[in-house]
Specification:
The structure is a single chain. A 7-stranded mixed sheet has the order 3-2-1-4-5-7-6, sandwiched between helices. The longest helix has 15 residues. The chain is built from 6 helices and 7 strands. It has a single domain, classed as Rossmann fold. Helix 5 packs parallel to helix 6. Strand 6 and strand 7 form a beta hairpin. Helices cover 37% and strands 24% of the residues. The chain binds S-adenosylmethionine (SAM).
């Protein structure tokens, strides 16, 4: 049976974020805005969401999805690489972030040559980890089949290996290296 990794990530977030009165969430890869909209809904009017993408096309799609769903009042979008999240976000975010979503790879229906890259993804993961509140988490959905995807997946698996001493790590699908997989990394 194929596991729906997006649902896995969203279920995990619902479980972990339920009961938090003021949610601070980061969507590190806005793409078509599914995760941003999901986080915006969870955060409600008391919380805040920021989303990053390097393509204006992605941010336009995200903005449109938010508007269509009556969301967005609590969301700020950045046309900027996620590896710059620490210097981009103000002091209220540092140490207070409850969730950081990464959904790696390329923009579906966009330019498949523009993908997340191992070096910047790893920098962003380190930055995200530093910004998390205690109990906060990183949700990582990793794809392997596009150009460079396998290398990125392998480097993330190494990063998770190093994090095991400090983080609670849950994975789904990682045992099959050619299929997409998911990890939750809890501080
Ligand atoms: C699989 S899509 C994300 C899907 C999205 N989460 C959704 O719900 O629709 C991956 C996105 O990562 C973006 N991306 C690539 N490199 C990036 C970087 N350094 N920082 C932020 N986003 C990046 C791509 O432009 C693409 O839109």
């Amino acid at each position: 049976m194929k596991i729906n990794l997006v649902s896995r990530a969203h279920d995990f977030a619902r479980e972990r974020l339920g009961g938090i009165s003021r949610i601070f969430a980061v969507d590190a890869t806005a793409g078509n805005g599914h995760d941003t909209a999901f986080l915006a809904e969870l955060a409600g009017t008391s919380g805040k969401v920021v989303a990053f993408d390097v393509q204006s096309e992605a941010l336009e799609a995200t903005r449109a999805r938010l508007a269509k769903n009556g969301l967005g009042g609590n969301v700020e979008l950045f046309l900027c690489g996620h590896e710059k999240m620490a210097e981009t976000l103000g002091s209220e975010w540092h140490g207070n972030v409850n969730a950081v979503f990464f959904n790696l790879g390329y923009l579906p229906k966009g330019d498949h040559a523009i993908t997340t890259l191992p070096e910047t993804t790893l920098r962003a993961l380190d930055a995200a980890w530093e910004m998390l509140a205690p109990g906060g988490f990183i949700s990582l959905t990793v794809y392997t089949r596009h150009a460079g995807g396998f290398e990125e997946s392998a480097q993330i698996a190494d990063w998770l290996g190093k994090m095991r001493a400090r983080a609670e790590i849950l994975t789904c699908g990682e045992h099959n290296p050619v299929e997409p997989w998911w990890a939750g990394v809890v501080k």
